[in-house]
Amino acid sequence: MDNFTNFSDVLDLVADATNEDQPMTGYAEGSLLYKSLPAHIYHADRDALSCSLLKPLLVSPAHFKTALTARREDTDAKDFGSLLHLLLLQPHLAGQEVAVYPGIVHSSNKDYKQFLENNAMKLVVDEPTFSKARQLAGKVQETLYKGRTLGKFIEEAMTEVSIYFTEPTTGLQLRIRPDIYHPDLDFDLKSTRHPSVPLFTRDAVKLDYDLQAFMYSLGRSLFEGSSSPKPFVFIAAETSEPFSVHTLAAGDSFLSNGAKKFQDCLAVYKACSETNHWPDLSSDGVIEIEHWHQHTPSRAWTTGQSVG
Fold first, then answer.
1. Contact at 8 Å (CB) between 212 and 265?
2. Considering the entire predicted model, what is its pTM?
3. Structural domain boundaries in the chain
4. At what angle do helices 209-224 and 197-206 cross, to 10 degrees?
C-alpha cells in the first residue's frame, strides 16, 4: 500500500506521549493492542489495512485505490451513529468532541452557520438529536443480555481499543477497532433504521458486517493466541422510537460468508500490489434480460379500468 504517512512512527509517538497507551504485546508476533489510541489517528492509518479499507475491494481494485484518498462524506445517519458511540462507549470524550446547538437546526439560519464555524472541529448536533441519542444510549445500557444489562458488560470491558496484527497467510498488516472488548466476548454497536431482525440482517450482509465480524474475530484470536474465537455480538439499536435493541450473535453461516469475503479481499489486494495493476469494472458486453423483466402490454384503459 502507498505509505502516505509512516504510521509506525506515529503510533510510537502516541505511546510515548501517554503512559496509559503503551501498547500491550499479543501472542502472535507483531500483534499490539492500544487501549486509547485517538480515533482520528487510527482512521488516518494507511499502512495497515482495516475492514473499511478492504470493503471497496469487493467492488473492484480501482474502487479500493479511489477510496484511499476519498474524502469522508458525513450524513445524518453517520453523525448520529458517532454520537451514540461517544455517549455510550466514551462519555468522557463527549464534552470535547460534541457541540450541541441550542434549538432545532435550520441550515439557512445565520446563528447556526456561525455555530458551525465556531465548532468546526467538533461533531455538531441540535438539541432534539442529542436528546434522542441520550435516550437510545440509556435504552442500550438497560437492555438485558444473558440475564445482565449491557451496561454491566460495558463497565467490565475496554471500549474502542485498537489491535494491530499480521495475517499469517499473506503477511499483510491489518488493524481492527472493537467497540466493546469484553473478556468473554466482543460487542459491536450498530445504529439502524430497521426495527426488525430480518431487515437488519439484509443490511448487515449488504454493508459487509459479516466481513467485519470475521476479521475482528480473527484479529482478537491472533492477539490472544486463542484457537476458538470469542462470540461476536451485534447490538442493533433502532434510531427511532420506540428504540428497539437487538443483541445478535454472528452465526456460523454469517462468519463463513465473512471469511470468504476476507480471503477474496486479501487475494485481490496481494495480486494487484505485486503487479501494480488496479483495474476497474469497465467492460464490453451485451445486455440481456430475464423473462420476468419482459414488458407485458396493458390494455385496461380500453375498458375504462384503472391501472393505478
1. no
2. 0.86
3. 7-275
4. 80
